[in-house]
């Protein structure tokens, strides 16, 4: 049967040769393959007779002698793909039984039943291109608007910031002045207060002593059961609570001990042992002993800065800010300011001042504005409109939420807590298209893995939506997001969309 | 999704807390040392000395095929039965069991491919000290000495191997438990009975001893005699929080083997250790107990996922082998009388001529079962391979595509991910044949199912791969989720196929799905049912191009002792203790059978397994388990696969890139370059690692990886032919140098380079930043040709070879002919009909030979003689192709496009002669600087006779 195969082979060889005339090289390159003339490899390395072009043996190092066969490992094959886009494929895909060229030309000898799908693909592609062009066109218009809006928005914000900064400054000055006034005014008051305090303390001690004495007399009377003017060991024994070691048996010796080693004491001697008794003594009438300690000090205590934040209900601080404070601790230089800023001190100082809330607002307005203005919203600030917005995508298991320039998160659909997939990091697109990728970093840590992070891939669309999410590597998420802000000017994308239809 | 592992974390907290305590190394505390394994501790406490065993020569029976005689332990009077067989092919089988065990002891079934055919034994001489038997040809004899019992196998005046020469034969007979009520009754009766007997028998009755042995009361007495020897761990033992109830009590067996003249022993995989086994005097013995070891440590004797109880012993004169057929936990001690000696000391011995012969002593200890040992007497390494193959079979012949590149990851997330990775390979023009799906593809770790969201239309996905002539592997593990809504579970439960716990209920353990049952694969009916589950109408979503991966089949039980099953779990009448090392073997057997059956017996299966035993080579491929992205792990992949190859398992590979952790780009590239030259070539990565598809490391590294993979594809004809050979002969494919150069001691310990077949020598680069490697080129009459540059080197030298990142050193042996297909396409199937280039490397005699094997690449039709096997030889300036299998029939469209002759001189004319007598001139080019002659397009069909003459 080998003879048959040999014949087959010779036939194939001829077929290959014949086919050479019709395709196998692009229009630009075809000029080098001039039938009958010796062929010089395109890298100039050698010249071979023309019958070795496309003879299914690789002669040229660069593979250029076999544009129509799979003989050269580094060769490439040109599909004309009339009706669609022409393409180069690696020559290893010629006759491998897989249809690569839509015009079927790569499978001329493999027995693969390929259908010419170029027209279909072409019209589909044109449709898509048309659609995309449309989108790009509209998207680009939208983008222009966004740029306009951003411009005015930015100016507005800048103006507002300046204004706020001015009024903040004003207020700070005012506060400073007020504080000075207040401190000056308070100085005599403070001294008076100290004097008053001292007097009050003395008076209080005297009252306490008085009360104690009264109490002692009362107790003496209560204890002196036989009213003989003496409190005796027997009198004491009726008060088991006085047992010094509280062991359940109040012995005579113990009672004697309480009375200073004697059997009985008179009122004068009782005064000297009173201290042994008063702590534990429970009145027979069960009347409560009034608490002796009462000071006005607490009311006059100055607010301690460390405890200050606890005194402000957390709701006073907008939630977003709260998050930022936690996440950006290391990066945000504002934070330090925040804690000791004069504005805040003044707020603490003038707690009762009605102006303080407004003042607090101003502080945050100021910070937000500064932060917002500092973001890179693209060359025309076309991404500014995304700031402060959030976009959601619901999958079978989770709801994903992208808040551009802020954070990405994931929440299980059926209960469970939210997971932070990263906070705004930076633009990470390639050099020529930096604004095509966003990176969100330092999300919730993964068990045994890195902190979660998300890459957001931006594509042109009329609408602003999250298209898809995936987790290609564990804890590294990928989100596809459309926005008009990345739409390019249509002409530059598809310069000759019309020409293609001619093919 | 990320959330998954966090759920896992809480589920497996106990296990993980121990495993993950911050370091990357294995937590050794999770696994037993010999001291923590009661029988090992007990047995190892016995020191060499005079054996208490005596051969009762009067009980000897010799038939044509076997010798039997009884052994008696003089300490406890328990008798053993020794059986000795002479097997075909120079193998001696020694079996020792209790003469009358209390109940049957486990004998390993299904591992031997048949009852080994015997050869006649003949008695040469006999006296009261022993008997001498002839072992057939070559003046080989076995001497059975009676007091104490020992066996010596001799050839001429040389002792090849001695058994029980150190007196370490130990056989813990089955006995009644002493502290139980029934024992006390029996033992009281026994002593009364004993006294009565003494009264009535004044002198020893020759029959008496035998009667006593048969008497159950006497058994009890025997036990009593041993009373003082009762130790902890005989009747129950515990490890960490796990108790082993040991209902049968002590049952260990042990035997020592002395190997005079031997300094190198190999085998007994699986260990992460050097090729040459080390002595174990100063540490634990090598352990054989299939275990799921988390982040295993290198260079130590700890047990790993698989166990093949086969050891090879080699010196410049002879290779021998010991196959210890026992599936219970086994420990192997190795000692050597030269191990402690320095090179100088050895030299001094040599000069003085006074040295004792070097000797290696080996001791095997198993927890239960019997002693059943096959002594393979070589004498050559290849004789050992064929002897072992005659017992347990050869490497299965895989589909050609399984030898190509496999792309795996835990996990490819969904169908879209699979499609994108597939497209990525085409976009970057890197070939691959298989893409793999790990456990996440299932519906909640229920094997044979698909995640309804992520893999909603598996057939569509598989069809997409069919269209690219590519294939897929999906994982099917043997732990079955306990879930009454899961068909597989319900059927196994209703058929009673689960392994039982000691109390008779279905054994349950924790594994990936949570609570899981473990089917009893030791049952043939269970295996048949399991195989039927792979039928296309049973395994929904499966197609012809879906193959299977069996992981976790040690079996892995997260909450079990040493992360495996309780030894007192029951497989019918047998304890898990008896069958443990067989479990993974059976899982792969049943799975491979399923893949064969689903095609009606037409298609060859492909099944990868992590656990294995002797004989596993018959069912597919193994890999070295969960390695790590570290240079040392790349390095250890060589001795690990070499060791497996020596014991029949050729289809071996390591996870390219390393499973745990993330490799540096350099390590990844080097690993691809190494993996491309190892039998099973699969990249794999842990769920927690960043993605590492070959194109993610910049165009330069993509190109390096592409080149490594392409080299693999060009050599597929050679690999395929090697597998065909391995399937025929049992010879390893990836082989240590000493196998081909058995008389060159310089090769005996080499395990940083290896041969593929006879003809390719590979020295991987396993050092970071290496600028060169020193390779030993073996064979003083050999020439070696660098396959990249065609530079010629002489053999028997250490050669420093500078390296760049572009490749690793690979040499073709002078005297060989290697067929390649240089038209690398996107999958091996796409290359089926492509032409061959023959690489003819001439030896100093200017001759060369090789083979070319061709068949359809995927069916069993080669068994029906549908293949082409050509002998290619170059001699006297004529290269010819001759049919080596004239009775076989196959035709191919492939032809010979190019012949490259290395070490040639320039001819004036080259003539091709084909069978019909036609002659034609062949054009050629000659590169004088490298002496390379290239014949241009001779064009003959690869399946026919032809010759090419250089003039």
From TrEMBL, chain A:
Residues 388-489 form the MRH domain. The keyword Magnesium does not apply. Residues 211-246 form the EF-hand domain. GO terms for cellular component: glucosidase II complex. Residues 147-217 form a coiled coil. Residues 1-18 form the signal peptide. Gene3D superfamilies: Mannose-6-phosphate receptor binding domain. The keyword Transferase does not apply. InterPro entries: EF_Hand_1_Ca_BS, EF_hand_dom, Gtb1-like, Man6P_isomerase_rcpt-bd_dom_sf, MRH_dom, PRKCSH, PRKCSH_N. Residues 305-335 have a biased composition (Acidic residues). GO terms for molecular function: calcium ion binding. Keywords: Coiled coil, Disulfide bond, Endoplasmic reticulum, Signal. Pfam families: PRKCSH-like, PRKCSH_1. Residues 285-339 are annotated as: Disordered. One of its GO terms (biological process) is liver development. This is Glucosidase 2 subunit beta. It comes from Sparus aurata (Gilthead sea bream). The gene is PRKCSH.
From TrEMBL, chain B:
Gene3D superfamilies: Glycosidases, glycosyl hydrolase (family 31), Golgi alpha-mannosidase II. Keywords: Endoplasmic reticulum, Glycoprotein, Glycosidase, Golgi apparatus, Hydrolase, Signal. Residues 1-25 form the signal peptide. Residues 202-252 are annotated as: Disordered. Residues 82-333 form the Glycoside hydrolase family 31 N-terminal domain. It catalyses: N(4)-(alpha-D-Glc-(1->3)-alpha-D-Glc-(1->3)-alpha-D-Man-(1->2)-alpha-D-Man-(1->2)-alpha-D-Man-(1->3)-[alpha-D-Man-(1->2)-alpha-D-Man-(1->3)-[alpha-D-Man-(1->2)-alpha-D-Man-(1->6)]-alpha-D-Man-(1->6)]-beta-D-Man-(1->4)-beta-D-GlcNAc-(1->4)-beta-D-GlcNAc)-L-asparaginyl-[protein] + H2O = N(4)-(alpha-D-Glc-(1->3)-alpha-D-Man-(1->2)-alpha-D-Man-(1->2)-alpha-D-Man-(1->3)-[alpha-D-Man-(1->2)-alpha-D-Man-(1->3)-[alpha-D-Man-(1->2)-alpha-D-Man-(1->6)]-alpha-D-Man-(1->6)]-beta-D-Man-(1->4)-beta-D-GlcNAc-(1->4)-beta-D-GlcNAc)-L-asparaginyl-[protein] + beta-D-glucose; N(4)-(alpha-D-Glc-(1->3)-alpha-D-Man-(1->2)-alpha-D-Man-(1->2)-alpha-D-Man-(1->3)-[alpha-D-Man-(1->2)-alpha-D-Man-(1->3)-[alpha-D-Man-(1->2)-alpha-D-Man-(1->6)]-alpha-D-Man-(1->6)]-beta-D-Man-(1->4)-beta-D-GlcNAc-(1->4)-beta-D-GlcNAc)-L-asparaginyl-[protein] + H2O = N(4)-(alpha-D-Man-(1->2)-alpha-D-Man-(1->2)-alpha-D-Man-(1->3)-[alpha-D-Man-(1->2)-alpha-D-Man-(1->3)-[alpha-D-Man-(1->2)-alpha-D-Man-(1->6)]-alpha-D-Man-(1->6)]-beta-D-Man-(1->4)-beta-D-GlcNAc-(1->4)-beta-D-GlcNAc)-L-asparaginyl-[protein] (N-glucan mannose isomer 9A1,2,3B1,2,3) + beta-D-glucose. Belongs to the glycosyl hydrolase 31 family. This is Neutral alpha-glucosidase AB.
